[in-house]
Amino acid sequence: MRVEDAHNIFDLREMAKRRLPKWLFEFVDRGTEEEVALHNNREAFERIKFLPRMLEDVSSRKLDTTIFGKEHKMPIGIAPTGAAGMMWYRGELELARAAKAAGVPFSLATGSITSMEEVAGEVGGTLWMQLYMWADRKLSHQVVRRAQAAGFEALLVTVDGVVAGNREYNKRNGFSVPFKYNSRNTTDVVMHPRWMLGTLGRYIANGGMPKRANFPDELQQNITTAYGGSKETRSDSLCWDDLKALRDIWPHKLLVKGLLHPDDAEKSLEYGADGIVVSNHGGRNCDSAPSPIEVLPSIVKAVGDRTTILFDSGVRRGSDVVKALALGAQMVLIGRSTLYGTAAAGEAGAARALEIYRGEISRSMAQICCNKVSDIGPQHVAYQESLTREWHKAAAGPEVVRLRA
Ligand SMILES: Cc1cc2nc3c(=O)[nH]c(=O)nc-3n(C[C@H](O)[C@H](O)[C@H](O)COP(=O)(O)O)c2cc1C
Description:
single chain; eight-stranded parallel beta sheet; 16 helices; binds flavin mononucleotide
């Protein structure tokens, strides 16, 4: 099957599944523990319906969107994922090229394989850098300074991964970070020759096992190397003062990624953030987290008039993007969707994913009678009020939220 024949993101997912070893596909595709959050992210979108409008001329629809004073061609951006470079040889470059061609921002993850300097030098476009905090904060601050020197326009500090998600399936099928060879995962690789030769083989032929090129020099080892102690990328001592310290050294747009509570959104602004990403990490970390779309209205109510709100998690259709915009997000980040595309066919696959979104967002806008992204609002969704009411009831007391009611 060619990527042009993929009708939707689920078709690209199937193509990715065929090309990738099982351990790698599952690392991208699955959630954590019982995968309640992963499934709820999709179900929550299904529960929200449009309130379609009719008989308006929508023949001049435009998807252009302005974020931080800069115009983009669509109200979506690429979420940071440490995995693009494992989907395809130097997959970050492929994905960044597709993003640039589509006129949308690209976020590069701390754990990427391609360096931020190469992405900026070889591709360009609107580039945002994601940051994880090492227990040794100096290491993270080095990454921040490099991102500034490389010309990145925004820093996304991820705060919902202070401990690793409990991904039991990874352990079962022989995948770990750092990567360790064993008979299970090696057989799996051999059974997927297109990935073995086209991705892993090309890294090995061009200098050895892939490295995390954005890690500070002292951590520059390949993906099979363990770190430990203060050199771990996750830090369970991460706190508001860290945000303040980042604000002091980062002169451009600063976003806090991974918030689900209006009070945390409020506090992020107090500590100098320019925006937030309402996200549950695609259901990969805390299995009991609500879907971000369920809590978005309460966050918009608290800080929507004072900051830029981005949204991610569970988005697979253009209609999901439009629902998040209707509930108050200004831009929607997509994670797995473009990873599936990159895994299927590099830049062409990522471009196909973005093309699918463009078509679906445009179709949804027509169906609710919107010519511009800024026309999309809460009046276009049903059940929005009940979502908000349920959240506020829950926030006010120990009442059980019945979002399914
Ligand atoms: C394979 C994979 C790796 C990810 N790596 C990171 C990361 O390094 N930093 C980060 O902030 N988020 C990371 N994320 C989360 C994404 O940025 C985003 O929040 C999530 O994918 C959105 O959900 P979706 O995949 O349903 O669109 C990762 C997600 C996936 C699927």
